């Protein structure tokens, strides 16, 4: 059996402008495709009640974190409930009660980049064609934040994560890293999504801190 017989399909095979990757990079990308598929399946088949309980523990860890306690502005994400994503809505409520400015991701329809906007209320957001709820197009932009909470399908001690494969968060973090006050980043995931190692590919950006329902720790340096 040849290696290509057991590797998942090339993620660039439908790319209208394909590019040739070095063999090692190609293998890492294919491994990530397979891990992404497996972790999505594992999370989706985990009972919703279990995910909700784990989400509550993640929120408790975040509320106890010094970065969150000191923050005046935080970027969160609205959970895609059918995918059993971590639910941070109780964190939104707790931070708003403290007067913290809360922003949420949105996709700029002209540039296809992820930006952040401040909704009037978390329940006012709607799905706008990208599979998750976004603030309204006329909501104020939110490009300066103290902390950004980042979703993940898998996380590793290095701070690297596996997302849905479009690179929105990696590009946004890299862009904001060049600002006068770059945000601290915290990746969140359930403990069963924690992996010892994740393949690192071009454009991947490590989070500064990792939080699961069981642990809260800084990335390895």
Give a concise summary:
The protein is an alpha/beta fold and 221 residues long.
Question: Could you describe the 3D structure shown?
Answer:
Helix content is 30%, strand content 17%. The chain is built from six helices and eleven strands. Residues 1-17 have low confidence and may be disordered. The chain has a seven-stranded mixed sheet with strand order 3-2-1-6-9-10-11, with helices on both faces. The protein has a two-stranded antiparallel ribbon with strand order 4-5. It has a single domain, classed as NagB/RpiA/CoA transferase-like (Rossmann fold, 3-Layer(aba) Sandwich), CATH 3.40.50.10420. It is α/β, with parallel strands linked by helices and 221 residues long.
Topology:
Blueprint: H1 3-6, H2 23-45, H3 48-64, H4 66-70, E1 73-75, H5 89-97, E2 101-107, E3 114-117, E4 126-127, E5 133-134, E6 147-151, E7 154-155, E8 161-162, H6 168-176, E9 184-188, E10 209-211, E11 216-218
Parallel strand pairs: 1-2, 1-6, 6-9, 9-10
Antiparallel strand pairs: 2-3, 4-5, 7-8, 10-11
Assign an overall shape: globular
What structural class do you assign from the helix and strand content? Answer: alpha/beta
Oligomer: single chain
Query: Order of strands across the biggest sheet?
Result: 3-2-1-6-9-10-11
Distance between the termini: 38 Å
Give the helix proportion (percent range): 25-40%
Radius of gyration: 18 Å
List low-confidence stretches.
1-17
CATH architecture descriptor? 3-Layer(aba) Sandwich
CATH fourth-tier homologous superfamily: NagB/RpiA/CoA transferase-like
CATH class: Alpha Beta
Strand content: 15-25%
What's the CATH topology label?
A: Rossmann fold
Largest sheet: 7 strands, mixed
As for the number of domains, it is 1
Element order: H for helix, E for strand: HHHHEHEEEEEEEHEEE
What is the number of helical segments per DSSP (H or I, 4+ residues)? 6
Number of strands: 11
